[in-house]
Amino acid sequence: MTHPLDPLSADEIRAAAAILRAEGVARPDWRIATIALVEPRKDVVAGHRPGHSVLREAAVTAWNLREGTVIRAVVSLTGGSVLDWAIVPGVQPNVTVDEWHECDAAMRAHPDVVAALRGRGIDDPSLTLVDVWTYGADAPYPGRVGWCDVWLRAAPGANPYAHPVAGLKLIVDLNTMELREIVDRGDPGRPEVTGEYTADHTDLPTREPLRPLHIHQPDGPSFALDGYGLTWANWNLRVGFTPREGLVLHQLRWDERPVAHRLGFAEMVVPYRDPTPEHADRTAFDIGEWGLGFMTTSLTLGCDCLGEIRYLDACVNDSAGEPVEIPNAICLHEEDDGVLWKHVDGERGAEVRRSRRLVISSHVTVANYDYLIYWRLYLDGRIECEVRATGIMVTTPFVGEAPEYGTVVDTRTYAPIHQHFIVARLDLDVDGERNTVVMSETELVPDDPTGMGLRQRRVPLRTEQEGIQDVSWATQRTWKVVNPERGTAYTLVPGAAIPPLLPEHAPVLRRARAIAHQLWVTPFARDEQWPCGEFVVQSAEDTGLPEWTAEDRGIENEDVVLWYVFGIHHVPRPEDWPVMPVDTVRFDLKPTGFFRSNPALDLPG
Ligand SMILES: [Cu+2]
Question: Compositional bias (Basic and acidic residues) at which positions (predicted)?
Answer without folding.
Answer: 198-208
